[in-house]
Amino acid sequence: MSDVKSPVAGGVVSRPGPVWRLLRHVMRQFGLFVMLSVFLVSILLSQRTAETIGDNIQIALPLTGLGCAVAEGRGVQYFGRFLLMELAIHGSKTALGDAEINQRPNGSGKGFPSGHTTAAAFGATALIQGCLAGNKSAQAATVIAAGYVGTSRVEAGAHTIWQVLAGAVLGWILQAATLAAFDRAMARLWSGAGRGAAVLRSEMAIARRRIWHWLRRVRR
Questions:
Q1: In three state form, how does the secondary structure of the chain look?
Q2: Is the Cα dihedral 95, 98, 103, 107 positive or negative?
C-alpha cells in the first residue's frame, strides 16, 4: 500500500482496502444510526447504572474511532496517539502522587486526569474529525456520549469535575493537535516492524523447506 498525506492532523496514511472504504462510506452516510447503535449496545451490555454505561461507552468510542481511522487509512497514527494518551494519563497520575488535585472524591488516589473521560474524548474527536465530518446530528450524539462518560465519573464519586475536564481536554488535544513528527516516527516504526515480520516469515518458510528436504533424505 502506498503512503499519502493525511487530511487530518497532517499524518502519513495508507490507502484502505475496499472493505474499509465501504465502512467509511456507511459511517459517512448513516453516521447517526451507527453511533446510536453503538450507544444502544453499550447500554444493553451494562448493568443499567450510569457508571457501568459510562464504562462501556468509554470503550466503545475509542474502538469506533479506531475503526474510522483504519477506514480512512490513519490506523497507525491513531494507534500511536492512543499509546501516547495512555502514557500521558498514567504518567500524570504517577507523577502527581499524593497531591490534592490527584485525590478522588471516594478517597483513593491517582485521579488526575480521568482516564475514562480522556479515552472517550479521544475517540469522539477522531470520529468528529473523520468519518462523521459534516454530519452534525451524529457529531452532536457523539459529543453527548463523551460528555455522559465524564458526568458518570463525577456521579460515581470516581473523579472531581476538574479531573474530568482535564481528561476531556487531554483527549481532545492528543487527537486534534498536529503531531507530524510523532506520526511520521510511528509510521516508520510500524513500517519497519512490518518489514521485519515479513523477513522473519520468509526465513521461517526457508527453514521449514530445509527441514522437510532433510527429513525426506533421512527417510530414504
A1: CCEEECCCCCCEEECCCHHHHHHHHHHHHCHHHHHHHHHHHHHHCCCCCHHHHHHHHHHHHHHHHHHHHHHCCCHHHHHHHHHHHHHHHHHHHHHHCCCHHHCCCCCCCCCCCCHHHHHHHHHHHHHHHCCCCCCHHHHHHHHHHHHHHHHHHHHCCCCCHHHHHHHHHHHHHHHHCCCHHHHHHHHHHHHHHHHHHHHHHHHHHHHHHHHHHHHHHHHC
A2: positive
pTM above threshold 0.85: no
Q: Name the residue type at position 218.
A: V
Q: For the domain made up of 3-178, give the CATH fold.
A: Vanadium-containing Chloroperoxidase; domain 1 (1.20.144)
Return the amino acid letter for 95.
A
Give per-residue pLDDT as tens, 99-154.
999 999 999 999 999 999 999 999 999 999 999 998 999 999 999 999 999 999 99
